Amino acid sequence: MSGTVLLGYDIETASDSTVGFLEGAAIIHDKHEVPWAVYVTGATVEKCTDAVRKVRDNELLTVCQHTYDHMLLKCVYMMPGDVKPLHGESPNAFIRGGTLEEVREQISKTQALMRDLVGVECQGLTAPWCYYRGLVDRPDLLQVLEDNGIRWVRAYGRDYRDCQPTPFTAQPFFYKDQGFPDILELGMQGYQDDFYWDRFDDRRHGDTYQDYLYATLEEVAKNDWVWNVASHDHGTPTKEAFFETKGKWIEDFIVRGKEVGVRFAAPGDFYAEMVARRDAGEEIAACL
């Protein structure tokens, strides 16, 4: 093996950008025969049901959830340690998470909407905003995931400052120590999207997001890492707008990934592989 890449997109705007992103992403992934996943909020499913249904049966696609209206599972306190503004004029940002009861309702409601409106039983979830060390300190939240049939989660997606990039030591692990050996943390290494790169990257790899992506692909291939690569349905009101923005770097990334020899995998297939490795006696320890 020479590295594994999982491409997953947060579909959360419940707007024309949802339609434009899904239409464009389907074209790119079909063209290159590369698996992809979407992590859709319940509110987006309600408002853009037809758009989600249109791509649901794509053989390369896995449909997952992203809570009902993007409620954080935990609080985030971003302290980048520089003087640049962050979500306003302040260099720091505190974003409150939901209560346990609110989170339970958000996740169970979205599971029901996915079943009723799209005909999908979600096994994966992306935690809004993501968190440093994922959910290792929240067995109560892991219980909510287990109760709702979630088997893999992208929740570890920040560094010790609650900022990014997330270190590549955050490789996938099972929440065995917390009592949930069947829930796999996939992590979200690096940056969650181009806008996080724009805010936090030191440009040591170059002046563009593609420079960063290409350099990191080389490292992923060399070290046989797993890389969960994300994007969002922001600023893509049409298919054409998607190809002028998000789609350009996504397609370039896929082409470059094939050139360096990384493997593109679907999250469900990767989950099954990890379960098989675990059951064969391999130690899969968290490296936080």
Give the topology:
Blueprint lengths: L3 E8 L4 H17 L3 E5 L1 H6 L1 H8 L4 E5 L10 E3 L14 E3 L4 H19 L5 E9 L6 H9 L4 E7 L14 E3 L4 E6 L8 H7 L8 H15 L2 E7 L6 H6 L1 H15 L2 E2 L2 H13 L9
Parallel strand pairs: 1-2, 1-10, 1-11, 2-3, 6-7, 7-9
Antiparallel strand pairs: 4-5, 8-9
Task: Output the keywords.
288 residues, alpha/beta, TIM Barrel, 5-stranded parallel sheet, 4-stranded mixed sheet, globular
Helix and strand element order: EHEHHEEEHEHEEEHHEHHEH
Number of helices: 10
Number of strands: 11
CATH fold title: TIM Barrel
CATH class: Alpha Beta
Helix content estimate: 25-40%
Distance between the termini: 23 Å
CATH fourth-tier homologous superfamily: Glycoside hydrolase/deacetylase
CATH architecture: Alpha-Beta Barrel
Q: Write down the overall geometry.
A: globular
- Which spans have pLDDT < 50 for at least 5 consecutive residues? none
Task: Give the radius of gyration.
Answer: 18 Å
Biggest pleated-sheet summary:
5 strands, parallel
Mean pLDDT: 97
Strand content: 15-25%
> Structural class, from secondary structure content?
alpha/beta
